[in-house]
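Memo subject: From amino acid sequence to discrete backbone structure tokens
Keywords: amino acid chain, backbone geometry, structure tokens, three-dimensional fold.
Body of memo: The sequence and its backbone structure tokens, given next.
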Amino acid sequence: MPMLPELISISQVFSGKRDKILTKAKTMTNTETKNLNSQKLGSVRRKAVSLSSEELVKTAYLQPENLLPLVVQPTVEKLNLAGWAQNNRSSIETQLWKHGGILFRGFEVGGVNGFEQFIQTLAGDLLEYSFRSTPRSLVSGNIYTSTEYPAEQFIPLHNEMAYSRNWPLKIAFFCVKKAEQGGETPIANSRKVFESLDSKIREKFAQKKVMYVRNYGGGVDLPWQNVFNTDSKIEVEEYCQKAGIELEWKSGDSLRDSFASRLRTRQICQAVAPHPKTQEMVWFNQAHLFHISNLEPAVRKELLTSFKQEDLPRNAYYGDGSPIEDFILDEIRRCYQQETTVFLWEEGDVLLLDNMLTAHGRTPFSGSRRVVVGMAEPFSCQDI
């Protein structure tokens, strides 16, 4: 994959020299630009290194025409990521708002504990993964495995917890072990997804919002005990009341009977949202993922044969309860695909995303793969 190495020294951007650099960049000849574009990030020749803070890192883009993600690499060996981030917090934040995602490559991470420290350095305490929609396992602290769907399945692009009224503003991934083949984490610019959708679709979703209906239990989807991280129905009811989630226990079980019962929840959430810092509008929902049309035709047919529409494990509607048209969902998926960027993981990579500005997914893979995830900086749609 073609790279554009060392476009701008990130330390120079961080120290307010961007205008001077851009002026210099405009004077580059076509030949110079062509030579840069023909190089690959992994084959960048090392320059004489100064130990000054401005020369500790260099930046690149995976593709010259695509600013997502910004790639940051150290110019010295064994540069600790959390330590470097501690001294560049506000600058990393600025670059994250601009690009939507930063890929840190070649740093000394320090394993899962070092990865957790990196997130804490930038965004404070990590969040517990509650009201989850996918299976994950706790690794350490509040670091989790990435979604544990079968390796042959593709996970569509989505913003984490966009099916909720509360979500993390930051999400980070650490590649402990890359897959033998596949297993990439595709990403997409949520601002561009919003812009590329037909204005009538945007307006309709903005007005009506999205209703998510979930039925837990029955051995088909996640049990409610796993979703809410508790065996107590009372705790589930308290959580739902605070989160604005409509709740209905099935089978007539008493509140004290913690197991065997089934649960249905409904919640109306945002479809679009302004970013709290940049004020740019983003496409921010998971209608295309929750909707029954997201499933393979054979699976969809079996579920519709086995369940009533309202009893499906999960589904999405307009906020007024009316069905979302299949052709509109297809258009949404097409826009995500159009804006997708895919890169190959390298072991030790850390990918930091602004969860509102950038969506992520997973490609099918073979062999062993271990990518862990941490989320931080809680945000609520009530804060918009």
